[in-house]
Structures are given as C-alpha cells and as structure tokens.
Write a structure and sequence with these properties.
Number of domains: 1
Shape: globular
Strand order of the largest sheet: 1-4-5-6-7-8-9
Low-confidence stretches: 345-349
Structural class: alpha/beta
CATH class: Alpha Beta
CATH architecture: Alpha-Beta Barrel
Helix content: 40-55%
Order of helices and strands: HHHHEHEEHHEHHHEHEHEHEHEH
Number of strands: 9
Radius of gyration: 19 Å
Distance between the termini: 29 Å
Mean pLDDT: 95
Largest sheet: 7 strands, parallel
Length: 349
C-alpha cells in the first residue's frame, strides 16, 4: 500500500514534521558502488524494462542512506521511446533522436501513451518498490518543454535554437507538440500513482533557458495541464527546473504543491517568490558534495536555515547527485538533516 503519512509528505503539504525530510535527485546512480555492480553496462531503457532490476536500483539508496523517499529508477524519455519515437539514451551524452521533430507532420510519429500496453514494466516496478520500502515512492515524468527540447534539437543543447525557432515561427505546431507531450506525461504519471506512488515530480530541467514571457506563453500552459490533471489523486506534486530563479513565481501558479529550487537562489528568497502556500525542495549545490562533508555540512546548514522561511521544506540537492560523489558524504548529510530541529512553528501548531 502507498505510504499515507510521513515527514516527506507532510512537508510537501506544508504540515508539521517531526524532523526535516531529505532525499536526493539521482540518488539511485553511479555514485553508489552497489548500483554500478548491479546495473552493469547496457541501455538504461533496457534496465527500466526489467522491473526486478529497476525496483532494486530504486531501493538501494533508501537502504544505504535512510532517505525519506524513494524516487523511481527510470528516465523522462521512457514514455517517448515506448510510443515508438526513435530515441536512445547515450551514456555520457543523454537522449539522442536520430530524426528530430521539425514539422507538424512529425506528430504522426508521437502517438498517445497507453500505459497498460506500452509501459507495464513501469507500473510493475512501482508496485514492487512500494512493497519493498516503508517510505513514499515518487513517480516522475518530463515536462513538455524539456521533452520537446530533446525531440526538436535531436539531443542535449546549449542554446535550444531549433526549439525556440519552432516556438516562434510555428506556434500552432509547437502547441500541438506540447499538448501531445502533456497527454503522454499525464498518462504516465497517472499510471504510476495508480500503481502506488505517493507523490510525483515533474522535471522541467531546461525551462530556465526560457525568458519569463516565453515560459509563460509556451511552457506553462502544458505544465498546468499535467499538474491539474493529477489534482483528483490528491498526491503531492513537485515541479523542478534548473536556472528557474526568475520563473519561480510563475511555477508556483502551475498547480504544484512543491517547487524545486536549484542552488542559485537562496531558499528564503525563493519562499518570498512562490508565496506562503507552496513548499520548497532543495537546494544544496551537488558539486559541494565533491569537496567532502566539512564543506557540504556548512552549506547544508545554511540551506536548512534558509528553508525555515518556507511553509514546508524538503531538503535535497539543487540538481542530481554527481557520479563522483562519495556516498559517505550523502550518508552524513542525511544524518545532519535528520538531527536538525524542524522549521520554527512546525511542531504543535
């Protein structure tokens, strides 16, 4: 059964917590020797299609670190690959599309997702993880802008030139693409929640490369469609992006219960931008963990102090765990966070 109550879920809902909750984006990854040993070589898409393997990889960091949530081992491109759009995840590069999306006719290559037929392994992995751990399981998907950027650019980009060209030269095509990707993401997230996920995170990793005007016009409506479509499930909805400091107030209007913040904006400033009814997640710079626990601990205490300004705070990194991170540093960070008093006023209200 999904976890109904925990400090993580309470913080997401801006409710009292016994101790600050913590988990790490990309906590199941190459920084863990047990992950490298079990994962081996081969495509991540193949690993995701093996529920037994994916469930074990999801649970490894929960056992090692004692984090307060397990995020599903998967990839934002899994639903895209499952509907037959030709994409592969290249180690060291990321998603690569051999025939990028460039015209409205390309929509015929991007059909809607049927989770039962297309991604049954994802739901099975969620069910297995729910049975294996006693912490909430976080399902996730990619937001339409970030997914579209990979499809249009053909892979990772530094300037998102083709994506912005499509948005401004063929807005009708762009909105049709964004709507299709929103439907795919929503179908995927619904299936994960129905399988037992207690919360969801929508990754709009590259939204920070948009101006406020372009984010509000071209990205926000499809994001609202996804998060609004999840409202009947009453699970916490987290929205995260990189470089989105100037977009935080807009992101808070998307229907998210929690807004993820990268390391560039102090959480007290972020709290002022999102308002009094939205929790925050973040925001330790993942690179500081490479400097050892002494440096990471000082920075983590600052994050925790700044997080007091938010009505709810989930400690996390400002992006994913870097592969060279010493697991012992993350272990000690979890211990530090759990030993910290909850935010002022969180107990006994």
């Amino acid at each position: 059964m999904p976890v109904a109550d925990s400090d993580f879920l309470s913080a997401c809902r801006c409710e009292p917590v016994a101790r600050p909750p913590v988990w790490f984006m990309r906590q199941a990854g190459r920084s863990l020797p047990e992950f490298r040993s079990l994962r081996g070589e081969g495509s991540i898409l193949d690993a995701v299609r093996d529920p037994e393997l994916a469930a074990e990889l999801t649970c490894q960091p929960v056992r090692r670190y004692g984090v307060d949530a397990a995020i599903l081992f998967s990839d934002i491109m899994v639903p895209i690959a499952a509907v037959g759009f030709e994409v592969e995840i290249v180690p060291g590069t990321g998603p690569v599309v051999n025939r990028p999306f460039r015209a409205r006719s390309d929509l015929t290559r991007l059909r809607l997702l049927d989770p039962v037929a297309d991604t049954p392994y994802v739901s099975e992995t969620v069910r297995r993880v729910v049975a294996m751990v006693d912490v909430p399981v976080i399902g996730f998907a990619g937001a339409p802008f970030t997914l579209a950027s990979y499809l249009v650019e053909g892979g990772p980009s530094r300037d998102f030139a083709w994506t912005k060209k499509l948005m401004h030269s063929e807005p009708e095509t762009w909105f049709a693409l964004a709507d299709r990707l929103a439907e795919i993401a929503l179908a995927s997230l619904r299936s994960q929640v129905e399988a037992g996920a207690s919360a969801v995170q929508l990754f709009d990793s590259w939204a920070g490369w948009l101006s406020r005007a372009d984010y509000e016009r071209f990205a926000l409506p499809a994001t609202r469609r996804i998060l609004g479509g999840l409202a009947p499930f009453r699970v916490p909805r987290i929205l995260f992006g990189v470089g989105t400091g100037e977009l935080l107030d807009l992101m808070a209007t998307a229907g998210a219960d929690v807004v993820g913040v990268d390391w560039r904006v102090p959480l007290d400033r972020a709290a002022a931008r999102v308002g009094p009814h939205t929790a925050l997640q973040g925001n330790l710079d993942p690179a500081i963990c490479l400097a050892g626990f002494d440096a990471a601990g000082v920075a983590a205490r600052r994050v925790l102090d700044e997080g007091h300004a938010a009505p709810g705070h989930v400690f996390n990194l400002g992006h994913g765990v870097l592969p060279g991170t010493d697991p012992a540093v993350l272990q000690r960070l979890v211990e530090l966070v759990h030993a910290t008093s909850p935010r002022r006023g969180a107990m006994g209200r």
